Amino acid sequence: MTIRWGSYKVKGFYDELIRVTGKPRPAALALCQYLRDLSDQEIEEYKSASEMAISVMGITFTVYSEEEGSIDRAWPFDIIPRIIPKSEWTQVETGLKQRVRALNCFIDDIYHDQNIVKAGLFPAGLLENSVKFRKQCIGIDPPGGIWAHICGSDLVRDKDGVIYVLEDNLRVPSGVSYMLENRQVMKRVFPDLFENQNILPVDDYPSKLYDMLAALSPRETERPEIVVLTPGIYNSAYFEHAYLAQQMGAELVEGGDLLVEKDNCVYMRTVDGLSRVDVIYRRIDDLFLDPEVFHPDSYLGVPGLIRAWKAGNVALANAPGAGVADDKVVYAFVPEFIRYYLDEEPLVGNVPTYKCVDKKDKDYVLEHIGELVVKPANESGGYGMLIGPHATAKEREQFKKLIRKDPRNYIAQPMLTLSTAPTLVNNRAEPRHLDLRPFILSSPNDVYVTTGGLTRVALRKGSIVVNSSQGGGSKDTWIVDDEGS
């Protein structure tokens, strides 16, 4: 038999499926027994079936390179799922709801009275130097005081087995379509596993997303007009934009398909004439949304859109300006936000974080840079960061210069011993590091967290970089009900 769990070595890591004894964790027992009984040929057939399903379903992601431009590639997928017991997930889910409530309170406060600044709990200088703070949004009141309607918070588990929030994505978080498609692929390839285990569903996400967006409509109507605003086919997440629009039964539009009339309402051009739009799920960055307010040369957005939003005639999700909290320096303050706005202790903790804007922290980072992961405040996708233990002396010195030049733009964190999960490498199960991005939907009436999320896995041996653009892949995430019905 190909997969022998007794020879699968777990050393110095927390493995999501296998304990240090070589025995499966209770929630993974049925899966591990099933995989153990597969032959080489069967494993190869399942891998081929998953690749064929990905091809037929058209699941791709876009990679950019200077030499070749943009390239669409098949989604890299591993057929061994990541498993989390429901008894553990319930605590994580509650903690994520708590976290996003506090983040929305912070954003609303920042664009109104700034009480947390007055209380001395958040430095005013961080706002003054924030590239995501939008002065144009001051005083605006989105429905329910909610700015980040869709949030993707990245979770990691350290060697101690504790789950931490690594960062929050509050502007235009992506990846949920891959979570949904991963599940569809697994159901096609392993239908019998879903019949024999109580795996909680993720398939209801598009309907939950639609209900959340519909709840934002400024007009009381049985079926509000919801559109997904995309930059177009050359955007790396275009597959997801089209997928979610199709799943919700919403129109997929580009900036040129919309216009704002003299009544400060947004309309969509159709073959039957203009149709009023109530809610826009925008997948365009703030600065390109409205050339009247932000970049005047933007052709991606809609002139007058912010004017219509301010007038309360259209809802935007996520709200412009939400990115003020999508900043790795602001991330370090989230536990304090929870205490200040909710009067609660955080249920899911942060990774310890050094803020280089703080002199004491900066001095520590410069002295211990070889032990730390240094990240710029507003980059994503794993770009622009230094992994100290893996960096050369020259790279460390270059980063020291960057930190000294602009300390506001950098944070540092200990290099976590990220958890692993068995991943097929040449038909053998080998440990690979991973993270998890659940998605949280916030409406004036409810907060919903996906049962699981997008598990990203570093396919290169020893790597902790999980982003698909840098060689990472993905797994289906199973929340298995271990509590009974």
Can you walk through the features of this model?
This protein is of the alpha+beta class and 485 residues long. The chain has a domain at 353-414: Dna Ligase, domain 1, CATH 3.30.1490.270. Helices cover 29% and strands 24% of the residues. The protein contains 14 helices and 23 strands. The protein has helices spanning 29-36, 40-57, 86-110, 115-118, 124-128, 176-189, 191-196, 205-214, 238-248, 305-310, 328-331, 334-342, 359-367, 393-405, and strands at 60-65, 69-74, 77-85, 150-157, 163-169, 226-229, 251-253, 258-260, 266-270, 273-276, 279-282, 315-317, 349-350, 354-355, 372-376, 386-387, 410-414, 420-425, 428-437, 439-442, 447-449, 454-458, 472-480. The strands form six sheets. The chain has a five-stranded mixed β-sheet with strand order 3-23-22-19-18. Helix 3 (86-110) packs across helix 12. The protein starts with 28 loop residues before the first helix and ends in a 5-residue tail after the last strand. The model has no long low-confidence stretch (mean pLDDT 92).
